[in-house]
Amino acid sequence: MSTNHKRPPSSLIFIFGGSGDLNHRKLSPALYNLFIDNWMPEKFDIVGIGRRPYDNVSYRQHLYKGIGEFSRRKDDQPGRWDTFSKYVSYLQMDAENEAEYEKIAEIVKQKEAEYGEHPNVIFYLAVAPQLVAGIVSKLGPLNICADTKCTRVVVEKPFGHNLESALELNKLLASMFDEKQIYRIDHYLGKETVQNILALRFANALFEPIWNRNYIDHIQITAAETVGVEGRGDFYESSGALRDMVQNHILQLLCMIAMEAPVSFDADEIRNKKVDVLHAIRKLRKEDVHHNAVRGQYSQGWMKAKEVAGYRQEKNVDKGSPVDTFAAVKFYIDNWRWQDVPFYVRTGKRMSDKETIITIQFKTAPNFAFPPEAAETWRPNRLTISIAPEMDIRLRFQAKRPGQGVALSPVDMIFSYKDAYIEQEPEAYETLLLDVMEGNATLFMREDQVAAAWKVIMPILEAWQQREPVDFPNYAPGSWGPEDAEALIARDGRNWVTLPAPHQEN
Ligand SMILES: NC(=O)C1=CN([C@@H]2O[C@H](COP(=O)(O)OP(=O)(O)OC[C@H]3O[C@@H](n4cnc5c(N)ncnc54)[C@H](OP(=O)(O)O)[C@@H]3O)[C@@H](O)[C@H]2O)C=CC1
Ligand SMILES: O=C1O[C@H](COP(=O)(O)O)[C@@H](O)[C@H](O)[C@H]1O
């Protein structure tokens, strides 16, 4: 265990949604791992908030189950959980009832006295978006640390339900907190492989000269999941794949791939460069949406010899639900670097494999000087960045097969995290929670980024709202989504790339 790093200042963390799925699966395991790695402050406390009737003991037991199931480490550190869990408590309260917020103010006072200093007071809002504004408007008047500005508010995605509600929420937050106190989280930005995109592009001289319309044919981003909505039907019915994944995670990935070189790693410099990309994405006209965007919903069926329910049969889902569990879109970025280069993105639940990959497909070599028989296996260069669950970067190029004559075949040069490093990479939420405690907002969304991302998505959402899907459900579990998604890219003479094997031929 490394101890010679500077730990963040004292922090008191309140998690609204402390009894929910996100905290169980991601936040608590992340905080526990930070504790094991000695990254938690010397003085800290974590208070989970929810309406369910836990006491401290049953709450800790509930979280401990989550560690066993979802933490990258499980419980392989004897005695550590017992020590950590003493810092964890549960506050049963209805977040919609203003009178109950006094309990929070009391805890803050008590901890300030215990620590002998003002800690960071962090409010993590791991609740459905429709609760966020109500909570924020009740937290503001508590005036916690108003003098020191040590309060921080972390807002989970999706930030708002559409452009209008996101703008309203931004206004509300701005009326109570400084922008520096607001952390709009998108956990994809905390993933090691996503952060590495900037290193790949801007710490190497090799790629940047060819990273443009002159050399790149097209770009693909796939974020496919095998899971269904996993009991989150209630949430998903007011969301859908486009809001849940494209508006935030996928557009952020696209920004990292498409942004111009930053002049520094200052939080605002990176965010400025990313927001420029969002502004440059061509807004679809409503009449063009059907040609450039495809939606889908999974049916009942089989996955790995196991029968699975269709989306409309999931808990808390309407029997005739029009909600998309799959979305694919073709975007264009209207600027000098990317003019006419299509960015195909897709995401879906209950798909064939869990894989998040970005593919940069280069143009073919301008002239083919090899004998005609070598042309059969001639493939353009391709750079594939696997974000999860595989974590690697592959560069495909043509090689001469051993033997007489000239036979070509595509091969991959592979950088794999697990082969290159012995350190275990932190989970995204570990990185992001540490950043919040340290006050580093680089990996968080600024208000104008959120609004710009909604502006990209709104024409699609509106067009889909106006025309109910007639053919839902339209893809089988375990497939790669609806046929129309294949057509979206096939029309341009291209095809979707799935997890690359060294000699895959697509
Ligand atoms: N789950 C995931 O993997 C991910 C989730 N997110 C985001 O995190 C947020 C939460 O999602 P998730 O955890 O899945 O949702 P859940 O439905 O599992 O949890 C919702 C939480 O909100 C609490 N809550 C609801 N109403 C109140 C209330 N009136 N007063 C106090 N607490 C209340 C619930 O507590 P109780 O029932 O005890 O009242 C529960 O703890 C969403 O915005 C989602 O988009 C983001 C990335 C991944
Ligand atoms: O934000 C969300 O992300 C998860 C997928 O995250 P990943 O890190 O496992 O790729 C998704 O399942 C969920 O629906 C969405 O809200």
TrEMBL record:
- What residue stretches are annotated with the Glucose-6-phosphate dehydrogenase NAD-binding domain? 15-196
EC class, as a word, reads oxidoreductase
UniProt keyword Protein biosynthesis present: no
Please list the residues that make up the active site. H249 (proton acceptor)
The gene from which this protein is expressed is zwf
Q: State the EC number(s).
A: 1.1.1.49
Instruction: Give the family, as the similarity comment puts it.
Output: Belongs to the glucose-6-phosphate dehydrogenase family.
- Residues that coordinate or bind substrate: H187, K191, E225, D244, K349, K354
List cellular component terms (GO). Answer: cytosol
Residues involved in NADP(+) binding: R51, K157
Keyword GTP-binding in annotation: no
Source domain of life is Bacteria
Q: Which UniProt keywords apply?
A: Carbohydrate metabolism, Glucose metabolism, NADP, Oxidoreductase
Q: Which molecular-function annotations from GO does this UniProt entry contain?
A: glucose-6-phosphate dehydrogenase activity; NADP binding
Q: Which InterPro entries match?
A: G6P_DH, G6P_DH_AS, G6P_DH_C, G6P_DH_NAD-bd, NAD(P)-bd_dom_sf
Biological role stated in the UniProt entry: Catalyzes the oxidation of glucose 6-phosphate to 6-phosphogluconolactone.
Source taxonomy: Bacteria, Pseudomonadati, Bacteroidota, Chitinophagia, Chitinophagales
Which biological pathway? Answer: Carbohydrate degradation; pentose phosphate pathway; D-ribulose 5-phosphate from D-glucose 6-phosphate (oxidative stage): step 1/3
Q: Where is the Glucose-6-phosphate dehydrogenase C-terminal domain?
A: 198-496
Q: What is this protein called?
A: Glucose-6-phosphate 1-dehydrogenase
Catalyses which reaction? Answer: D-glucose 6-phosphate + NADP(+) = 6-phospho-D-glucono-1,5-lactone + NADPH + H(+)
Query: Which biological process, per GO, is one annotated for this protein?
Result: pentose-phosphate shunt, oxidative branch
